[in-house]
Amino acid sequence: MKLYIVGFGCGSREGMTLEAERAILGSDLIIGYTAYTEIVSRFFPEKPCLSTGMRQEKDRVALALEKAQTQNVALVCSGDPQLYGMAALAMEMGKDIPDFEIVPVAGVTAAFSGAPLLGAPLTHDLAIISLSDLLTPMEKIVKRLRCAAEADFIIALYNPSSKKRSDYLMKACDIVLEYRGSSTVCGYVRNIGRDGQESRILTLGELRNTAVDMFTTVIIGNSETKIVGGRMVTPRGYRNV
Could you tell me the pTM of the whole model? Predict the structure, then answer.
């Protein structure tokens, strides 16, 4: 039996990889966070699903490991299962189960599925940072933001805001503004591949005062990012070679 840890991408059928589709089709049961199983079940209505609520990751993995002893199971995550997903936790919790295979299945994370809506903003070195401090101390998040900003990385921000963390994006922008000008080109995408999809290109100064939510991915350009034909572009430098 196998436990597939499947990243289904942004939430559209077109954004799912063929490998992810094959893993789900080859599974007898789908398990995931409630919002994710609702998305995936629309694409695979013939597959039975079990779900758990938010912040029940250990319970979800334990359920998947139990069910995978007698059948093939797909534990689904949005984006990629290694990036803020369930792959590492499943491997940690399942390490002592004999004769059992855990198979991570790559998916397209929000930074890469959302960036084309803005243009081509990720063509150079990139740092992906989550602003959620549920599992990471805020002191560490601040340090990572400061180091990425100082090193002139393009920065993709996940989980930029919530009802309890409404000012986190503003604080992150303030840190980046210590190293970059307020005219730095930025963008955000929301509900990628789903109903209500939207995107916007704006400056770092404007981004600081912009309201976003947990379904938004923010991209802060580096010192070379610019607007080309109304689109956000970070050049790699090929024209200079």
Answer: 0.94
Average pLDDT of the chain is: 95
Q: Which residues are CB-neighbours of 219 under 8 A, at least 6 positions away?
A: 111, 114, 115, 118, 121, 122, 154, 155, 156, 157, 186, 187, 188, 189, 232
Residue 170 in domain:
yes
pLDDT in tens, 37-90: 999 999 999 999 999 987 889 999 999 999 999 999 999 999 999 999 999 999
Domain boundary among 108, 139, 169: 108
Q: Mind listing the pLDDT tens digit for each residue in 196-228?
A: 999 999 999 999 999 999 999 999 999 999 999
Largest CA distance in the chain: 58
Domain assignment of residue 44, given as a range: 2-108
DSSP, res 59: H
Q: Which two tokens stand for residue 12?
A: 């559209």
Instruction: Report the C-alpha gap between 201 and 231 in whole angstroms.
Output: 8
Whether residue 123 contacts residue 235, with contact meaning beta carbons closer than 8 Å, is answered with yes
Tell me: do 83 and 97 sit in the same domain. yes
